[in-house]
Fold:
Amino acid sequence: MSFTSRRNLFFAGVLGFAALFLWGLRGLPDFGRYEGVYGLTLNKVGVAQTHATNLVAAVAFDYRGFDTLGEEFILFAAVVGVAILLRAHRDEAATDDAKEKEDEGRSVPHTSDAVRVLGLGLIGPTVLLGLYVVVHGHLTPGGGFSGGVVLATAALLVYLAGEYVALRRVSPESLTELAESAGAGSYAVIGVFGLLAGQAFLTNVLPLGTTGHLNSSGTILLINLAVGVEVAGGFSFILAEFLEQTLLVRERV
Amino acid sequence: MELLHGLVLVLVAVGGTAVVFTRDPLAQSMVVSFYGILLGILFFVFRAPDVALSQIVVGAVALPTMILLALAKANQE
Amino acid sequence: MTFLPFAIAAWLFAVGLYGIVTSRHLIHLVICLSVVQSSTYVLLLAIGYRTGAGAPIFAETPVGAPVVDPVVQALTLTDSVVAATVTALLLALAVQVHKKAGTFDPDELDILQG
Structure:
């Protein structure tokens, strides 16, 4: 199908979509007057039932914990997919192309001193910020998902401030794989605690503690830690897989 | 706060259009990073600090990094 | 004026879809897909908003105060991070396609090799 005919077909489709969308919008309540009963009920009883002050985390990891388990396994499957795709690539390159590349006179670009110093200085605060966001997920905004990505960004800073070899020493391949698998598995195991206590899967059966303290809200804190470990391991693994090609070039220069 | 909401929404629409109409992927990664920050501001104005935090970390840092790494990996062959 | 957030969500969806349909570079296509995903986040958060309400974090605000809906925020929160990982998978696919076919242009990828 040629470019213009594809584009004209798209415009016809989007006109139909716009008509249906405008017709459907007339049934929605106005912006700002949402009357969802589920949300209103949770606002009133959520803090008392789970002893967690961050109601979004309570909804994501307790009331709707099963949906978040599914999302976490989507993340796990995507990381496994990246590993399968790029590892086969790396094995082929190591046998055929790497020996050709070293003759081409390709030089690895130098990083400036400002980048290295700033990157080195920011690694410590980034790790601290990531750990803080993960651990305080049930009290303040944040949680396992955001904190895990911040921790993976710290691994990227190691690569920027030094070389790929330093990154491999700080987060070796086996450690990131172990972290990611352990995080994903721990979420399911924490759900089994509810089964062992005679209730439904993923029920909050651990002692709830005092509202506002760090050690409160039962399984929500444990699930936050598990998700933080998994997301940090998963993103570090993806970054290292994408960076793997440069290792072959650097070792020969 | 209606004016603030309307202003940030229009900025997000302009940012999304800019992301699509930047055809070169290298320039597009920078535009998508800026669009991620605009979305973070929009989520903050809609009283969603959790979502804004996730969006800024993912959309302004992790996503452009992966795009640049994919481009570098493909161009090294 | 109360119509604007939903109209902006529809506009982002349509513009991102236009970028996917008329794309000439696979990585440009993947980024336009992330624009389409962001339109769903805008729609969800616009639905859950209540005028004059605060954020659903009760660390400082008392429990009875009006807050916006927390359920749509929980949906959007997990979706942001997971969508980035799926984008990484799509980028790895694009890199493999470039290795096998030598080009990033979707119009030239019409040969199925068995």
Summary: Confidence is low (pLDDT under 50) at residues 102-107, 248-253 of chain A.
